[in-house]
Amino acid sequence: MNEALPDVPEVRVVGLPQLTSGFDLVERLDLPMHLKVHGPLEPMGGEQLAQLSERINLRGRGGAGFPFHKKLRSVAESAIKRGVRPVVVVNGSEDEPACRKDTVLINRAPHLILDGALLCAEAMGARTLVIGVTRESTQRSMEAALAERGLSNGRRSALRARVQRNPVRMVTGAAASLIRSIDGGPAIPPGRKVSASRSGVGGAPTLLSNAETFAQLAIAARIGPERYGNTGLYDEPGTVMLTVSGAVARPMVIEVPTGVPLRYVLQLAGAPPVPQGVLTGGYHGKWIDAATVDEAIVSRNSLQQVGGSLGAGAILPIGQDTCPLGESLRVAQWLAQESAGQCGPCYLGLPAAARGLEDILNGGGPAALEAVKQVARNVKRRGACSHPDGSAMFLESTLKAFTDDLAAHVLGNGCGRPVEGVLPLFEGGGAPTGVPGSDDGGNGPSRQKIHVDWTLCRGHGLCADILPEVFQLGADGFPTVAQADVPRFAEAKAVRAVRRCPALALRIEEDGRGQAPASRTNLPVLSQVRGRRALGR
Predict the structure, then answer these.
(1) Of the candidates 151, 74, 142, 122, which has an alpha carbon nearest to the alpha carbon of residue 218?
(2) Burial degree of 514 (CB within 10 A; 0-12, 13-18, 19+)
(3) pLDDT tens, 459-506?
(4) Which residues are CB-contacts of 285 (< 8 A; sequence separation ≥ 6)?
(5) Which residue, of 270, 288, 318, is where some domain finishes?
(6) d(Cα 314, Cα 327) in Å, to the nearest integer?
């Protein structure tokens, strides 16, 4: 089984390094070494910076791929129109188990990221810079980099810079979540979609992009658009940072020029010669089959044309000896657990989709398949953030990519292959162990299980009304599950369901890693039950 990736896995480069220059010399480029490797950086005007971004076709490297020059101009125009100073935010919240490229850059080349962010801040007259992170290692590295530049206390510069540490959660990386946390709220989406370019941190226009985007801008500003364009494809110049894991001999982060065959990248990491499929773009990405792998090259457009996605730059092959639907189920369960728990498509739809895929694997037949497809359609474009959309895309891609295996499970007795667990997940399916921030406002891993005592249950159905995240009623009017993990955001409702059950047929068991809260001491609690984790078993 694949273990969780370390913060800084092996780093490789194809061709001449740009972002990874100096990695062969030191583990971390402090400011003096950074200047020796990359040289000084001259300031640029706002429109000059936007034109540079447009000429190199720089797009956000966090997944959405929005053109950076449009974002720059939008923030500048909003700031001028309103007569306020904008804010610059670096999103280093890389909380997907299969992604490490931004984490590697922050840990090993933090000043390259700061170069790009400070370039934008000076060009637009910003006086506030915030770097959002979720890991202890990235927090230490970036705080050290700010101190090396004399920006840690804000006394040596008109610019105030700081690091914002948030819990490790999939939804933490959403732009709206990061902005909300910077303003003092929880690190979850606010439930309404507002453009950060118009109203972001403190209501000010905010330029927000991920760490690699700012690092790429710093490279282009140093070497110019012509030299930058000499690497990679003409329409997508430069390099791309990829995280390659899954069924590989050597999980790694690799910097490659755009246009490199995807097959070559997989070979470098020791992937199977003929993978059963490759997940492109991470857990909000898409699967491509083995035949398509030979056609794909590393670029946003190429991967889209073959049905894949560059997304967050994660590439995950799986071999022929594992069940692809079972592997995808583990991810679907993890995605459901990562819900912010504040909109129906997320906290109801994603668990239902995961249960539907599990039903297919358990012999649910064509009815189970149609149910999964219906749920996936229903959650799209209806959530408070992009998490339901990305999760639904992953699920639909799974059903499309592995049609033979799907037919074997739906129409036969299954594919006969075990689930090897080759797609990396955090231990237990939740956040990495030992990471501060588990007290995250109800969005951490499950700490409880709720159980149905069938000797007492009379089918009143109140549990499904109060706790629909966990309970659904079958055709006979009784709950369809005997026990289930309780999402952290639904723990209060679970307590209410236990107390209001007329037949006293429900009980809650604590995980065993902590005692039950004092307010719940009147509930049936079996605190000795240990080692139970939610999702991703």
Answers:
(1) 122
(2) exposed
(3) 898 988 888 878 888 777 888 888 888 877 778 888 989 989 999 999
(4) 279, 308, 309, 311, 312, 314, 390, 393, 394, 397
(5) 318
(6) 16
Residues 402 and 484 in one domain: no
The pTM score is 0.82
Which structure tokens are listed for 378? 């229903």
Cα–Cα dist 320/253, whole Å:
24
CA atoms within 13 Å, Cβ hemisphere of 102: 32
Separation between Cα atoms, residue 139 and residue 137, nearest integer Å: 5
Helix axes 211-229, 31-38, angle to 10 degrees: 20
Residue 411: partners with Cβ closer than 8 Å, 6 or more residues away:
365, 366
What is d(CA 201, CA 384) in angstroms, rounded to the nearest whole number?
19
Q: Which residue from 93, 79, 205 is spatially nearest to 142, judged by alpha carbons?
A: 93
Helix axes 350-361, 387-401, angle to 10 degrees: 20
Look at residues 294, 318, 342 and tell me which one is the last residue of a structural domain.
Answer: 318
Q: For residue 309, give the amino acid letter.
A: S
Class of residue 333 by CB neighbours under 10 A (exposed 0-12, middle 13-18, buried 19+): buried
Q: Are strands 160-165 and 277-280 parallel, antiparallel or unpaired?
A: unpaired
Phi then psi dihedrals of residue 380, to 5 deg: -70, 135
Report d(CA 290, CA 305) in Å as an integer. 15
How far apart are the C-alpha atoms of 497 and 505, rounded to whole Å?
A: 10
Question: Are 361 and 326 spatial neighbours (Cβ–Cβ below 8 Å)?
Answer: yes
3-state percent breakdown (helix, strand, coil) of the chain, nearest 5 = 40, 15, 45
Q: Which of 327, 326, 325, 379 lies closest to 351 in space, CA to CA? A: 379
Closest to 243 measured CA to CA, from 314, 309, 318? 314
Give the span between the Cα atoms of 288 and 276, in whole angstroms.
9
Residues 200 and 307 both lie in one domain: no
Structure tokens at 126: 């910003």
pLDDT tens, position by position, 49-87: 999 999 999 999 987 789 999 999 999 999 999 999 999
Q: Are 288 and 277 in contact (CB under 8 A)?
A: yes
Tokens, residue 406: 């799907």
CA distance 215 to 91: 12
Cα 215 from chain centroid (whole Å):
20
Within this chain, do residues 313 and 345 fall inside the same structural domain, yes or no? no
- What CATH number has the domain bearing residue 478? 3.30.70.20
- The CA angle 125-131-135, to the nearest 5 degrees, is 175
User: Do both 275 and 412 map to the same domain?
Assistant: no
Q: How confident is the model over 305-336, as pLDDT tens digits?
A: 999 999 999 999 999 999 999 999 999 999 98
Q: CB neighbours of 137 closer than 8 A, spacing ≥ 6? A: 7, 8, 103, 107
Instruction: Give the domain range for residue 206.
Output: 10-227
pLDDT digits (tens, 9 = 90+) for 145-161: 999 999 976 555 789 99
Q: Residue 111 and residue 25: Cα distance in Å, rounded?
A: 16
